[in-house]
Amino acid sequence: MFITFEGPDGSGKTTQIRILASTLIEAGFSVVVTREPGGTAIGDQIRNVLHDTANTAMSSVAEVLLYSASRAQLVEEIIRPALADGRIVLCDRYADSTMAYQGFGRGLDRGMLADLTAYATGGLKPDLTIYLDLDVSDGLARRRNEGEEMNRLDLEAVHFHERVRGGYRLLAAADPGRWITVDADRPAGEVATEIRDIVLHRLSVSR
Ligand code: TMP
Questions:
Q1: pLDDT digits (tens, 9 = 90+) for 170-187
Q2: Residue 142 CB–ligand 1 contact under 6 Å
Q3: Could you tell me which of 92, 97, 127, 100 has the C-alpha nearest to residue 20?
Q4: CATH value of 2-206 in 3.40.50.2300, 3.50.30.30, 3.30.565.10, 3.40.50.300
Q5: How far apart, in whole angstroms, are the C-alpha atoms of residue 39 and residue 19?
Q6: Which of 94, 130, 159, 173 supports an S-S bond with 4, CB 3.0-4.6 Å?
Q7: Is the CB of 37 under 6 A from ligand 1?
Q8: What are the strands of the beta sheet with 128-133, ordered from one edge?
Q9: Tens digit of pLDDT for each residue in 66-95?
Q10: What is the pLDDT of residues 29-78, one digit of tens each?
């Protein structure tokens, strides 16, 4: 099963993936945790270029091609082999981030992005996408308070992040069979319990 986590920066995706991975491992599942951009040696080099706050001159087209290149490498090198071995893959961001940030945030053509993503991934879609929904200003404040390093996208204006959030909500509403929206404005333990119940239920149904 291929499970992706989406949401604004600061919504707690990384913490939730860590908790879910240990819950699933304890329950006897074989789990692979990965992230985008990055997750491979080549992808991590691309990630550095994408996140470098000095790269203010990067065009939106160059940006989306770099995210897609990182994704193509991750799918081929890590995700497809793990799924073929019957493992559960938990991925911190995937193609829906491109639709939300480059499509709704930057305003790139969403039909073109869908085609590009299908090419980069060979059409591989998640079985389940957990969307951690959080107010934009709360997310940015959390990142600052936790002393997390700001990336190039964090430096975008608040209305960019509002468009991203609006995009995520539309994507989630359009495909309720794949997307689960979780309110991230709660203590991490509460959010983790909700996610655990959803995922264990899905796994029992798919067995
Ligand atoms: P993160 O690893 O801290 O979540 O940061 C990844 C950043 O890159 C985040 O601001 C969202 C952005 N991003 C895109 O704009 N498009 C994409 O396709 C992906 C995967 C991430």
A1: 999 999 999 999 999 999
A2: no
A3: 92
A4: 3.40.50.300
A5: 19
A6: 94
A7: yes
A8: 31-35, 88-92, 2-6, 128-133, 179-183
A9: 999 999 999 999 999 999 999 999 999 999
A10: 999 999 999 999 999 999 999 999 999 999 999 999 999 999 999 999 99
* Ligand 1 pocket, residue 93 CB under 6 Å: yes
pLDDT tens across 102-143, in order?
999 999 999 999 999 999 999 999 999 999 999 998 888 887
Helices vs. strands in the chain: H and E counts, helices first: 9, 5
Residue 67 in contact with ligand 1 by CB distance below 6 A: yes
Locate the ligand 1 atom nearest the alpha carbon of residue 70 and give its number.
20
Which atom from ligand 1 is nearest to the alpha carbon of 68?
18
What does the DSSP 8-state code read for residue 49? H
Say which amino acid occupies 34.
T
Token reading at 183:
């309110």
- Provide the whole-model pTM: 0.95
Q: How far apart, in whole angstroms, are the C-alpha atoms of residue 28 and residue 137?
A: 38
